Amino acid sequence: MQTTCRKATLEDVDTLYELIKGYAEKGIMLPRSREVLSRQIDTFFVAELADEIVGCGSLCKLGADLVEIRSLGISEGHKGQGIGSKLVDCLLDEAKRRDLPKVMALTYEVNFFKKNGFEVVDKEIFPEKVWTDCVNCAKQHCCDETAVLKMLN
Ligand SMILES: CC(C)(COP(=O)(O)OP(=O)(O)OC[C@H]1O[C@@H](n2cnc3c(N)ncnc32)[C@H](O)[C@@H]1OP(=O)(O)O)[C@@H](O)C(=O)NCCC(=O)NCCS
C-alpha cells in the first residue's frame, strides 16, 4: 500500500491532536491544543496510508528566508518505512514552492535528519526561533535538542 502526503484540513485536527499529544507526553514534542491546530492547520501536512493518518509535520515561517519543520511524527507501528522521509520531502517541496530556502529543525533525531540531507548547526544562529516556540518551552534555559539545517537550491 502506498503512502501519500497531503495538506491537512480542519477535519484532521482531532487526529493531529492525538498524534502530537502522544509525543508531547513523552517530552519529545511540544504540545499543540486543538485551537492552535485549527488556527495553524494551513501549515500542516499529513501522511496517509489506506485512508488512515500515519504521520504529520508542519512548516512554520520564522523569517524572510527561514522556515522550521515542527511537529514531525510518525505513528507507532509505521516508523522505519520511509514515511518520515516522505513527509520531510513534502515539507521541503512546500518550502521551495514558497521560496523559503533555509529549512531548520530542532530535534533529538539527528541521524534521521542527516539521512535527509540536513547538517548540524549551532542553535544560536536562529534567534528568530527563541521568540516563537522556545518562550513557551519548559526546557527554554536547558535546551538539549540539536539544530539541523538544510539549504535548498
Ligand atoms: C524521527 C521520525 C519522524 C522518523 O520517521 P520514520 O518514518 O521512522 O523514518 P524513515 O523510515 O523515513 O527513515 C529514513 C531513514 O532514517 C533512518 N532513521 C529513522 N529514524 C532514525 C533514528 N532515530 N536514528 C537513526 N536513523 C534513523 C532510517 O533507518 C532510514 O534510513 P535508510 O534510508 O538508510 O533506511 C519518527 O521516528 C518519529 O516519529 N519519531 C518520534 C517523533 C520525533 O522525534 N520527531 C522528530 C521531531 S523534530
Total domains, how many? 1
Order of helical and strand elements: EHHEEEHEHEHE
Please outline the major beta sheet. 7 strands, mixed
Count of DSSP H/I helices: 5
Secondary structure tally: strands: 7
Q: What name is given to the CATH topology? A: Aminopeptidase
Which second-level CATH architecture applies?
A: 3-Layer(aba) Sandwich
Question: Could you explain the architecture of this structure?
Answer:
Pfam families: Acetyltransf_1. Keywords: Acyltransferase, Transferase. This is Acetyltransferase. Residues 3-153 form the N-acetyltransferase domain. This protein has 153 residues and is of the alpha+beta class. The protein has a single domain (3-151), classed as Gcn5-related N-acetyltransferase (GNAT) (Aminopeptidase, 3-Layer(aba) Sandwich), CATH 3.40.630.30. Helix content is 29%, strand content 29%. It has helices at residues 13-25, 34-39, 83-97, 110-115, 127-130, and strands at 3-7, 44-49, 52-61, 66-74, 102-107, 119-121, 146-151. The chain has a seven-stranded mixed β-sheet, sandwiched between helices. A hairpin with a 4-residue loop joins β3 (52-61) and β4. The radius of gyration is 15 Å and the shape is globular. The N and C termini lie far apart (32 Å). It binds coenzyme A. Coenzyme A (COA) binds at residues 23, 28, 72-74, 79-85, 105, 107-109, 111-112, 115. Coenzyme A is lined by residues 23, 28, 72-74, 79-85, 105, 107-109, 111-112, 115.
